[in-house]
């Protein structure tokens, strides 16, 4: 790994095997500030707070305040979800809760370790009706996002007037609602995942903070968490917490034989293949244990995928300080069609979609003064410039790593094939 010291220190402190707090113990105040910036953006702050990490008193006070604020946010989340569920139920809409608090029991060391920023609901047949029902209680579709390649309708938000103040745990941050109409986009990713249509048929009832809700069954919940991680990995924006929660589940189900028997029987070969990529990433980053069934699926991945993990497994972490697009080589290794490879290359190298809004998202139009409108345009321009600079910095590594990947793939194809001993008899 070529990681900055603060980032490497956090990953070492959160590993399941080979865990060490030694690097954290040597950090200076300036490096601790980098740790907190990284953890806030990676959604690892609360996990780190519950480790507990060594550090100066000001770091401990800050983490304690983050935990306290998130407790308030959880109470607000319960109120918001209760209202949303009642509004949808009144229209006969029965959504399935994805991720978020639906994963608290099996994907986190403690419910307090999860920070949730939105509410994801899966209602493939009734997404439009659910949108209309939520509009009746004050939600609005967020403009400027309909062109983005997502699996849900434009996020629904309430225009409360809240504005970003630099605190990732601000109790007043609103909860947008994402209404999902599919679980995986075969067309965009160019990777099939058959069998997802059966997920809603296996839904189960769960309970959270006294509220009952529909969720995916345990095997399908792991399937969706893995696909969600893989989607973001292939698009170059996987958050370390997404990897950590999959690693947590895998590590604490490494001997759950009944679960893995069910998982194998319910999921198709193409789906297990995609999930196994997330399993390998979780093991690489956080050293989690793997059940023999999960390990067998990971070992069945193509040789080119194993080669990618050998050289680029940590690229997603390195990109926090050294922008790269190494996930592109993984994506191309998974796709067999030359036409689809060219589509992926065009989409990643020549992006044609602009990002969604980044400022004043929750401010009502009636409160958008000329000053606020000017500031919104300026911040969007600055954000575009920052993204452009990020992609520009990644261009030279892209060329170099692309050439080295081509050479490695050629070397892989020249390796002598293993001869079946039965042919020698």
Structure overview:
By secondary structure, the chain is mainly alpha-helical. It has a domain at 321-417. Helix content is 54%, strand content 6%. The chain has 18 helices and 7 strands. The chain has helices at residues 5-14, 22-25, 29-42, 45-49, 57-90, 104-107, 127-135, 186-189, 218-234, 240-252, 257-266, 269-286, 292-299, 303-312, 315-318, 327-334, 338-349, 370-414; strands at residues 96-98, 119-122, 140-141, 156-157, 177-180, 204-208, 211-215. The strands form 2 sheets. A 5-stranded mixed beta sheet has the order 5-2-1-7-6. Strands 3-4 form a two-stranded antiparallel ribbon. A hairpin with a 2-residue loop joins strand 6 and strand 7 (211-215). Helix 14 (303-312) packs antiparallel against helix 16 (327-334). The radius of gyration is 22 Å and the shape is globular. The termini are far apart. Residues 416-425 have low confidence and may be disordered.
How is the secondary structure organized here?
Elements: H1 5-14, H2 22-25, H3 29-42, H4 45-49, H5 57-90, E1 96-98, H6 104-107, E2 119-122, H7 127-135, E3 140-141, E4 156-157, E5 177-180, H8 186-189, E6 204-208, E7 211-215, H9 218-234, H10 240-252, H11 257-266, H12 269-286, H13 292-299, H14 303-312, H15 315-318, H16 327-334, H17 338-349, H18 370-414
Parallel strand pairs: 1-7, 2-5
Antiparallel strand pairs: 1-2, 3-4, 6-7
Helix pairs in contact: 1-3, 9-10, 9-12, 10-12, 12-13, 14-16, 14-18
């Amino acid at each position: 790994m070529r990681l900055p010291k603060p980032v490497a220190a956090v990953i070492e402190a959160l590993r399941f095997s080979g865990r060490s707090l030694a690097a954290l113990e040597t950090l200076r105040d300036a490096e601790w500030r980098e740790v907190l910036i990284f953890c806030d953006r990676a959604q690892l702050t609360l996990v780190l707070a519950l480790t507990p990490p060594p550090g100066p008193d000001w770091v401990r006070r800050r983490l304690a305040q983050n935990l306290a604020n998130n407790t308030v946010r959880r109470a607000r989340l319960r109120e918001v979800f209760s209202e949303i569920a009642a509004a949808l139920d009144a229209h006969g809409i029965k959504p399935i809760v994805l991720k978020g608090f639906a994963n608290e029991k099996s994907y986190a060391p403690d419910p307090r370790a999860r920070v949730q920023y939105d509410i994801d609901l899966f209602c493939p047949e009734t997404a439009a009706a659910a949108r209309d029902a939520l509009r009746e209680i004050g939600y609005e579709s967020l403009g400027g996002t309909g062109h983005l390649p997502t699996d849900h309708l434009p996020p629904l938000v309430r225009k409360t007037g809240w504005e970003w103040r630099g605190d990732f745990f601000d109790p007043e941050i609103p909860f947008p609602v994402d209404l999902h109409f599919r679980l995986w986009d075969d067309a965009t990713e160019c990777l099939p995942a058959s069998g997802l249509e059966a997920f809603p048929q296996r839904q189960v009832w769960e309970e959270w903070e006294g509220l009952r809700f529909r969720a995916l069954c345990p095997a399908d919940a792991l399937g969706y968490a893995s696909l969600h991680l893989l989607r973001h990995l292939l698009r170059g924006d996987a958050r370390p917490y997404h990897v950590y929660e999959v690693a947590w589940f895998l590590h604490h189900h490494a001997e759950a034989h009944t679960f893995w028997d069910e998982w194998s029987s319910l999921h198709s070969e193409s789906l297990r293949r995609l999930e196994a990529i997330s399993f390998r990433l979780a093991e690489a980053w956080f050293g989690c244990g793997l059940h023999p069934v999960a390990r067998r699926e990971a070992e069945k991945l193509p040789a080119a995928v194993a080669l990618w993990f050998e050289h680029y497994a940590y690229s997603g972490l390195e990109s926090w300080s050294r922008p790269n697009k190494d996930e592109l080589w993984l994506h191309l290794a998974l796709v067999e069609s030359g036409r689809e490879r060219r589509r992926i290359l065009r989409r990643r190298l020549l992006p044609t979609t602009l990002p969604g809004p980044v400022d004043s998202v929750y401010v009502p139009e009636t409160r958008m003064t000329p000053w606020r409108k000017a500031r919104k345009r300026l911040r969007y321009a600055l954000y575009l410039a920052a993204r452009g600079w990020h992609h520009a910095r990644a261009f030279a590594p892209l060329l170099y790593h692309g050439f080295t990947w081509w050479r490695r793939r050629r070397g892989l194809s020249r390796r002598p094939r293993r001869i079946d001993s039965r042919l020698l008899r």
